[in-house]
Automatic annotation (TrEMBL):
It comes from Neorhizobium alkalisoli. Keywords: Cell cycle, Cell division, Cell membrane, Membrane. Residues 25-221 form the SHS2 domain. This is Cell division protein FtsA. SUPFAM superfamilies: Actin-like ATPase domain. Self-interacts. Interacts with FtsZ. Its main location: membrane. Pfam families: FtsA, SHS2_FTSA. It is a peripheral membrane protein. NCBIfam families: ftsA (TIGR01174). Belongs to the FtsA/MreB family.
Length: 443
């Protein structure tokens, strides 16, 4: 039976990790450029000043990645092709780890991700706030977010209010008449998620949980101060660019646009009349988002499209390549700037932006982003993980690594089908568990 049919709520839900023992976690990052499977051993860790929100150390024991097929802008476009790539990636990771996988945490970049805040209030009648009241108000907010055509990926309480006073982090045991909560809910189109799940199921695997790509890459690439003070993580993938905004230790907003590094490649292939793989190579070797004086003088040979060996490569100045790359990169960054502006989270993002994802490695990208977004920009690589091969330490692997970190924070979420929060993870002392402090007393 499909997990989708198993509850009115729809999505498979993560089981929380135990803070006492080790776990093996497997994840699958299904992207438009590559499909990555990682298997890791999570072992409980002592509290530490470095990445204090993490309850476990993550050590990668198996990794497999394949060039993506059958996935366009994060959407499964060809089931057979996508399924065979998933099988190959999982198979390679299993061989390296020396174990077999039956269920995986999968990322979601498509399905028109949307991010909404739902507010709910309940009457306390002047009594003190008890765990059951928290459960009731969280349940009420979750219920308000349920929709037929969309499935909830994440629902995170971002703050409580008592008698209209906002910004209460933990209302337990306080007195008041009205308790309110703001719930950040990330949803995606149900059909897109079903096809994603179907693709994994056809490879004889089950989906253990689904995580929005922007959430995962933010978890991997941001440092604690950024997450606490307010920051945007922009994950530039092959087919989609996703945005996540974090503040006060929590995910407060997500968004996605269907533009990515692959669009730069196709622009080059069209503009220079060459094959896609040749255009990709030229982008990596010669592409830049910033023009410089030598561009007019440097000449690049462009391989022709034809099969005929007698066709000679055309010679073009590097400036032409730069112009094509720059135009598309600027368009993408301007769209992101406008989306952040429109979201109303611009003040929270402040001056901090972290770029990650495969397409963030393009030469000159951070300078262009600094200029267009008018903010400090750094390139974010996945942090706090051991056992990653050198090839997988770059920003292209942030999402996969973030999926590994996700089970450590999954307990912050509230789901209507469960009438409350998932059981407490660890000892609740991480910064992500502050609102969930009352969990360990009450469940």
């Amino acid at each position: 039976m499909s997990v989708f049919g198993s509850s009115h709520f729809g999505l498979p839900r993560m089981k929380p990790l135990s803070s006492k023992r080790s776990h093996i976690v497997s994840v699958l990052d299904i992207g438009s450029t590559k499909v990555v499977c990682m298997i890791a051993r999570l072992t409980p860790r002592q509290e530490s000043q470095i990445l204090p929100g993490r309850t476990h150390n993550v050590e990668i024991i198996g990794i497999g990645h394949q060039r993506s097929r059958g996935v366009k802008s994060g959407v499964v476009a060809d089931l057979d092709a996508a399924e065979s790539v998933v099988r190959l990636a999982v198979d390679a990771a299993e061989r390296m780890a020396g174990l077999t996988v039956d269920s995986l945490i999968v990322n979601v970049s498509a399905g028109r991700l949307s991010s909404d805040v739902y507010t709910a209030t309940i009457d306390l009648g002047g009594q003190e706030v008890e765990a059951s009241d928290l459960k009731r108000v969280l349940g009420a907010a979750s219920q308000r977010s349920l929709r037929q055509d969309r499935a909830t990926l994440h629902s995170l309480p971002t703050g409580f209010s008592l008698d209209g006073e906002r910004g209460v982090r933990d209302p337990l045991a306080m007195f008041g008449d009205v308790l309110g909560v703001d719930m950040h809910v990330v949803t995606a189109e149900r059909a897109t998620l079903k096809n994603l799940e179907l693709c994994v199921n056809r490879a004889h695997l089950s989906v253990e949980g689904m995580v929005a790509t922007p959430y995962a890459s933010g978890l991997a690439a941001l440092v604690d101060d950024e997450v606490e003070l307010g920051c945007a993580a922009i994950d530039m993938g092959g087919g989609t660019t996703t945005i996540s905004v974090f503040a006060e230790g929590r995910l407060v907003h997500t968004d996605a646009i269907s533009l990515g590094g692959h669009h730069v490649t196709t622009d080059l292939a069209r503009g220079l009349s060459t094959r896609i793989e040749d255009a990709e190579r030229m982008k990596v070797v010669h592409g830049s988002a910033v023009s410089n004086g030598a561009d007019e003088r440097d000449i690049i040979a462009v391989p022709p499209i034809g099969e005929d060996d007698r066709d000679l490569p055309t010679q073009v100045p590097r400036a032409l390549v730069t112009r094509i790359v720059k135009a598309r990169i600027e368009e993408t960054l301007e769209l992101i700037r406008d989306r952040i502006q429109k979201s109303g989270f611009s003040p929270i993002v402040g001056k901090r932006v972290v770029l990650t994802g495969g397409a963030s490695q393009l030469t000159g990208l951070s300078e262009t982003a600094r200029r267009i977004l008018a903010r400090n920009v750094r390139i974010g690589r996945p942090m706090g993980i051991s056992g990653l091969p050198a090839a997988a330490k770059g920003p292209a692997f942030s999402t996969a690594v973030g999926l590994m970190i996700y089970p450590q924070v999954a307990d912050m979420e509230t789901h209507a089908s469960q009438g409350g929060l998932i059981g407490s993870l660890g000892n609740g002392n991480g910064r992500l568990a502050r609102v969930g402090q009352w969990l360990k007393e009450s469940f």
